[in-house]
Predict the 3D structure of the following.
Amino acid sequence: MKASPVHLERLHYWSIPIPDVLNLLETTQEGLSVEEANRRHAQYVSVRLKPHRDIQPTLFLIAQFQSPIVLLLLFAAIVSLFLANRTDALIILTIILVSALL
């Protein structure tokens, strides 16, 4: 009895007898052979892994400023500048820049 991968994801393995689970997964209590493990790895690894894409540093830095907490801190810095409290604004902006560079 061979189950489709979609069907296997919905099963509750703890409620199925061990021999039936082993049969569904096409394995034994000793585990997979090296050849079978390599075959399954080659078959299923491409399904789960996303292709690697190059990350441009400038886009990565800009993406750091999309966080709601960073936007809130930017708003606080602008308000501090508007109220002529440059020290607080400078501290807030320093915190934002340091966190963005980490």
Q: What stands out?
A: Residues 5-48 form one domain. Residues 45 and 51 are 11 Å apart (CA to CA).
